[in-house]
Structures
1.
Amino acid sequence: MKNQFYSYIQNLQNQITQALEEIDGKAKFKEDVWERPEGGGGHTRVIENGDTIEKGGINISAVHGNLPKSMQTYFKVGEVDFFACGLSLVIHPKNPMAPTVHANWRYFEMYDKSGKLIDQWFGGGLDLTPYYLFEEDATHFHQHCKKACDLHHADFYKDFKAQCDLYFYNAHRDEARGIGGLFFDYLKANDSFSIQDRYDFVSQVGNVFLDAYLPILIKRKDLHYTKSQRDWQEIRRGRYVEFNLIHDKGTLFGLKTKGRIESILMSLPPHVQWHYDFEPEQASQEALLIEVLKKPKEWV
Amino acid sequence: MKNQFYSYIQNLQNQITQALEEIDGKAKFKEDVWERPEGGGGHTRVIENGDTIEKGGINISAVHGNLPKSMQTYFKVGEVDFFACGLSLVIHPKNPMAPTVHANWRYFEMYDKSGKLIDQWFGGGLDLTPYYLFEEDATHFHQHCKKACDLHHADFYKDFKAQCDLYFYNAHRDEARGIGGLFFDYLKANDSFSIQDRYDFVSQVGNVFLDAYLPILIKRKDLHYTKSQRDWQEIRRGRYVEFNLIHDKGTLFGLKTKGRIESILMSLPPHVQWHYDFEPEQASQEALLIEVLKKPKEWV
């Protein structure tokens, strides 16, 4: 399974890289290959200062070895070995009318000291963070999320959409980071699903990413915008930074276990603003977005 | 003692507000008075878009009531009442040649349910975060820190300078946030010092702030700078954000106990950048700063 999934994310990384470079037309992804001293490593691909993409990264990694102490505590296990691989991506478009997107698909294995597999699961999802709300974009994105889910179980979309709204939440601001999508974790084999079924589902979600996001990016990337709309985007990107540095388990975990900092923090937006007590005008497009972020909606 | 210290920080807030407004010449501090539903409140003063100060805040607050659950755990006590007051300030100058400064002075009391005082202590300090290193500025700042300390105990400067280097440290970057200053906490009455001695020391440190910082701000605020030096300032401000959102106990504590968000996050800089794997040129002024941040120096 680990080889099967790693091949899958390698191909997906190439596919997404190529599609985004084509749309951007100007900038190219730059690849850094890195090694983890304790075992494994990754391929970090970053694009900056494009015509369409101001900053973005598509990273894959596969790491293994003794499960670090902090992860033993987190997973409530003793001294075991592990293997983990995954793809993480964040795209910050330049145009404030185009939403930021984040996605992640990952697979985890644990072994006892004799090398016997004792646990394995998948996790991941995808979610959208608009600066201006186009309802049709939110619906389009969620329709594709739902389509991938419905092929596997009638409850998946409802459940994983709800988990996404719960997870990507800036509790200290009482608002969602964006308009959601899917989030799932600890997808293990059970009476209803084999681990191969889980793989089939997670790769289905991975396969839907480009269809879910690209049409939105293409539609919005060349729209006209003003200086004050750009400022609004940079202020909202501040909330993105707040989520990633205060709440995101993956980011904090990476920082605390001394992961490769530049690969972890490539998710942070390129230009960001914080103003004291900034409030959009009543009934403005900006205020409308906040209203939706305060109360997650059903988009499909 | 609580009235004595609260009067002191009220006066200090007025004094610092006035001195900074005079230097800026253009912008004025705007005051927001807020109340804490469970008891107490604060006066938040923020200045933005000045000629000299791009963003800054000087806040005082005095809060009281039942010690929140999370603070009971933190302080390892049961159900007690508390009183806490303090002044917090952060100044982000516009000119990258002028350093950001942060300072905080606070006083805490705890009572049992009959209202008897069971514990009391002071905490605080001040520290400097330059974007370009002028050694004479670092020395000037630390000389004033030392002067305040030396009037109270021969070991204070050495001890509190070391605690500052230890505290304002971005562990995930293996570098200090800035060039330090003083940091102290849990200054209680003991065999050597009465609580009045502690007050005398902390107010001495408060009194030294303007002399420690203003001459540096005045000297650097109108120096010429280039676009790329401004970019470097905004990139380094990213490290400031990382420290405050990932490591700073005061910030995280405020967010987790649902403090007034805008007063807590007024510390974040107005314009910030993150680039992937940005490295200054070898032997440049920018590289020189990093070198000093990697290895805290003795400035006096």
2.
Amino acid sequence: MGHKGIRTALKVDLNKPAWEQPGLHNRWHPDVPSCGKIANNEVVKIECLDWTGGQIKNDDSADDIKNVDLTQIHYLSGPFDIETAEPGDVLLVEIQDVQPFEDQPWGFTGIFDKQNGGGFLDGLYPKPAKAIWDFEGIFCSSRHIPHVRFAGLIHPGILGCAPSAEVLAEWNRREGELIAANTTQRDVAKPPEPKSAHAGSAEENLKEKIGREGARTIPGRPEHGGNCDIKNLSRGSKVYLPVHVPGAKFSVGDLHFSQGDGEISFCGAIEMAGVITIKFTVIKGGMAKLAMKSPIFHPGPVEPQFGPGRYLTFEGFSVDENGKQHYLDATVAYRQTCLRVIEYLRRYGYSDYQIYLLLSCAPVQGHIAGLVDIPNACTTLGVPMDIFDFDIRPETEVTKLDMGSCAFASD
Amino acid sequence: MGHKGIRTALKVDLNKPAWEQPGLHNRWHPDVPSCGKIANNEVVKIECLDWTGGQIKNDDSADDIKNVDLTQIHYLSGPFDIETAEPGDVLLVEIQDVQPFEDQPWGFTGIFDKQNGGGFLDGLYPKPAKAIWDFEGIFCSSRHIPHVRFAGLIHPGILGCAPSAEVLAEWNRREGELIAANTTQRDVAKPPEPKSAHAGSAEENLKEKIGREGARTIPGRPEHGGNCDIKNLSRGSKVYLPVHVPGAKFSVGDLHFSQGDGEISFCGAIEMAGVITIKFTVIKGGMAKLAMKSPIFHPGPVEPQFGPGRYLTFEGFSVDENGKQHYLDATVAYRQTCLRVIEYLRRYGYSDYQIYLLLSCAPVQGHIAGLVDIPNACTTLGVPMDIFDFDIRPETEVTKLDMGSCAFASD
Amino acid sequence: MGHKGIRTALKVDLNKPAWEQPGLHNRWHPDVPSCGKIANNEVVKIECLDWTGGQIKNDDSADDIKNVDLTQIHYLSGPFDIETAEPGDVLLVEIQDVQPFEDQPWGFTGIFDKQNGGGFLDGLYPKPAKAIWDFEGIFCSSRHIPHVRFAGLIHPGILGCAPSAEVLAEWNRREGELIAANTTQRDVAKPPEPKSAHAGSAEENLKEKIGREGARTIPGRPEHGGNCDIKNLSRGSKVYLPVHVPGAKFSVGDLHFSQGDGEISFCGAIEMAGVITIKFTVIKGGMAKLAMKSPIFHPGPVEPQFGPGRYLTFEGFSVDENGKQHYLDATVAYRQTCLRVIEYLRRYGYSDYQIYLLLSCAPVQGHIAGLVDIPNACTTLGVPMDIFDFDIRPETEVTKLDMGSCAFASD
Amino acid sequence: MGHKGIRTALKVDLNKPAWEQPGLHNRWHPDVPSCGKIANNEVVKIECLDWTGGQIKNDDSADDIKNVDLTQIHYLSGPFDIETAEPGDVLLVEIQDVQPFEDQPWGFTGIFDKQNGGGFLDGLYPKPAKAIWDFEGIFCSSRHIPHVRFAGLIHPGILGCAPSAEVLAEWNRREGELIAANTTQRDVAKPPEPKSAHAGSAEENLKEKIGREGARTIPGRPEHGGNCDIKNLSRGSKVYLPVHVPGAKFSVGDLHFSQGDGEISFCGAIEMAGVITIKFTVIKGGMAKLAMKSPIFHPGPVEPQFGPGRYLTFEGFSVDENGKQHYLDATVAYRQTCLRVIEYLRRYGYSDYQIYLLLSCAPVQGHIAGLVDIPNACTTLGVPMDIFDFDIRPETEVTKLDMGSCAFASD
């Protein structure tokens, strides 16, 4: 009862390949062997790798981003068996804290190469780029994006319970249909992929099965949450997760020091390795009781608060940059909103790539404003002015500053 | 200097048809005659009709909603000539206050008939419905949605400067192309429509031209703002608007006592007639100076603030209710998020229509969470728990209450 | 039910002496005749004079402040009989709105002459001074204190129910003892004063009695609240007031457009005439049920919010300006804290009197920090940086601006 | 540059007596030897003992509180020489983080025996008592005060630079005068005390001198800050401290996991040992530049935020519990305000001692409301309702709960 430290349910080894660590896995599948037990109402610490499993370095080149192996990502910590959890229950996950490792006080934000991952604005910004962020306590700053500093809204990008076989089959069905119908040049979804599948401590046969059937970790999914990348799922949040298999088989990973709404550059948060402290409580029969199909959460009281009057807010509409009118398309509108911010901040000396990186990871607020006034969806993006050490209000004269450069690839 | 009241730049007559009032108009067109001059740096009051021009009654039937004439809407107050404003300038509009008329302290939220207007969830909720809201100072409550009360985040749904002829032509081109390509059953955009066009004090010939060419007021548009329905454009906000014609020709209307992000039921805000107090300042050459293509705004410090920990937040993904997977579609995801809230709140005794109305008008926060994790867009919707007089937290036992009914149409 | 306007329970006449208006009074006494009835659960509007009853003018001289007649103040609106209220009940007062009169959009802040009223810093600043504030919607600004503008945290300075004869006797006893023991030069309390007593519609005999016995309105008092000058008792607040006489006999007045914690210059809020909208609810047996000896309140969600990081905060201790050490005296500490702000803001070109006025009326936060570390009490004063149109952060270079002058008296 | 961990400038040993550790000291004196150098603009971690130097145990008896040795407290970490700092400069201290030790996740709140320390309400509550708080990430809860849980507003109780000989002499003069004039039974200040003086690495002679002359650490003082116990001096704050000696000689200690305004029970915060991360920057000539006599601070954006409408607020006035009227005495008023909260919360089953402990350490807001309405000062105390797991709003029925007990002494 507090006399000594909180139990660490999983330790990771930052100096060993992720695929050699039995407490990690990178596919969603009901059969991934449990890596440990957690009692109902227990508080534990769980260590996590960064989402690339250590592929990205603290240096000034984006070659590592360019060449990142996207089959070797999202090594999640888990799955954990939560005692008493049964299908139909809800697992209440209270995020008591999230911290980087003390001896690794830095993280990164990346823009993937259009040919290898891409991102929300890759039509305009196809090159890989990177920013390294140094953590100073609750704050971070970057030598690659000067004159900016902010407190992290620290959170896990991914958490969820394992799918049942039925849920997994449904995922594979519907995403398979999308892939089958795809006529574009770009990937629209990721099918199961045996290559680089890591199934924790699974024996070879089981591992093959999981590689063949297991759902990829990239998308969040309505039935369990997963890779939601919700910036407000931060310290103090209570998350309510549907349970689909006995023991819940909870996994977590992809810690973010900070992220903006949308995580637009895809590797857009400030990605880091670290430790998450969680309290687990099983709500028996919770899915029916709460009429729950997708996760619900209740944020804590401790987010960075800038005050409503400290956000400079940009509007965007579903008319794309070629003048084409789209029908109530909030995705197109949000892309335009992001471009409006880039045009505005460019005046201070930042390169477009620097701003693209910044919008991905700073605590910007992306709202759906109006979604019914045909044909235009309208979205807004609020930039907290206090993250800059100069005054970005429209009424203040613009002075171009020396903004240096973010990291680019060598060729 | 404050010795007497602020000048009222336009009075409206609530007992006279909108189309007989020369200070109102319902099309965007550069040639609508100005209804008055406002000095640079002047503060004025402007009276506005509700967006239906008085078609909706304070009663317990939704027949008026069912039969609303959607060609007779959005009678805007204006346009006003702002002294010294020229194309390329930016008009800074400071919203000093917005108030309902003292002797008309009520407003309405409507769900349109799927055959006459529709809305975001009309596939599931095709019937017309209505809630009347009574204003008690800064608060509102409704006999049609009991056990709810909140402070208004009061704002204008529409404000903007007139388009130039070129901008207008561009609107008609691109929206015309969308209409031409439409293969669905539903309207995807509204073309110019001479019927019920009101061009203020225009002579007959000019009025006909404006009816033929004038842009409809339904959508917001990137070049000037217009019907953005941004709930945070409230008291204390500074809005920066592009100027496209000499004198700016500023118009405003469609006042909302409150609105949720998305304004999902289309007639979704708490619509009201009232008075807006604005200060106008011209920023010479502002469009180039601010690199501005679409409006920017800076909210004031006075929004209702519930604290980060008082929002119960729901997640939704771009998988529709038929299990179909959509590709990074934030609009689909937001629809699912809304449905999750309906399923949750239904447990307390509300009908789905009541919740649909409530989500449209209460200050709910709709965020774009993740928009890059193929194929799922993830959006969130935060419901402020303090608007209910009972406890909606998941950990509290549910008691069904007598929630009465919203207003429906007679047949 | 909202179809028409809210009933106005009392109208005041701004062009008639306060003492001729039967709905006003300026003494607390159980026998002041009721000026009207209000039903349980009713919402009404009540008009109020400013606290000087119109003695202060919108001009650039402080002669009116210098010569103010302090026996002719605090003409309260009421008392109102609230149906069903009995001694021992609690009257729940919901402040739905507070507004200035539409045709009188201005208010004033004064520093009284040390010889006529004085104030918190009158040892250092003995001269009378004045600032006129113009209201522009929810904002105010002053020609007497340039480069400052803020949203009002609008509230009534005074509200409360009438004392019973017993409560009144207790007030007179204990304040009389303080006066009797006074050995200083200054008034320490105000005894009953027949001169200029106004007892509403009371007949001459009763009026004399009330003049002789009635408690003065200057101090707030624990048994009923009264002149608390609590800036956060603003729009949206629910106040719980003890009831001491049948019908409660509720009175209200002394409206403030804004005030800082402490209201340090005594006439320190932005004083105004206006209208307050209140809902009244009687809680039977509430005093015992709530174990209530003094009023409790629950603020609404709509205060101006600057964010925790937007307050520049000054520390003060209970060592006075002569180097004398006081024992845990929070009053002395707060005076020092105010002086620290004056020294800091003076660097920008403001006169001490301008800052003294500003600290009295702007929404500054005065906290009791530490009150146990003998011998020093420590208090803090947080100044919201966003009320200035220049940057007051310590890291920004100081530029002296032309700050004009506040109004002073003619000699 | 972030590649590796932040340097720890001082380690403490929790298993060794404080007085044997040369990096600690418990007197303010210019001659305490520096325990290390810190560069201008450097970020370091500094470890700190709890303020009793480990005297209090994690158990269920308050015997340790009863018998605490108050000469053996406030072992501060330091002093540190900050490179380039000279008298007249300002030391900018950015508090980047404060954390408990990972293997000691608990703290304590105490009420001292009236005969040994006492506190703000010791007239009514003379007995020693204690509550142990367990930390679960950013939250804490106590087996001694059930049904309460909140996020810490973590901060150092003490930080400051060393006094010069002149400043120290002034402290001793003015506090000595207070002591000399004392006619009460209680200590009004603490004179220099050779007993248990710890002067870091000082040789015997110097140590004796420091014991003879050195200022006690209990009070905060205007010239340097010191033991201010300001709850908002939390993570993210920038504090501006006057420098009086070459190298500044900065010290810090007395870490608090949380504290309420006033820290009323004297050992009132949640006291803990832990680590603080600070960035130091010297502002040359800062005292003149900022016209600074006492510290100023600028809080960060990350405090727990409950929203203005989530504080139940109590009023108190300067009339004491014996009915005696005091003249504008904010200290008396705040004591009454605290008593009003105790009376209210007692209804739920808490003992008065439990509430007294809770008010000392939970993030309650203590405001100076009105300080000019003779003879009554009015203060308010806002209790954040969300720290309770039951509903404390006045409109909710009271149910008494089993609240157990706080720890008391054995006899």
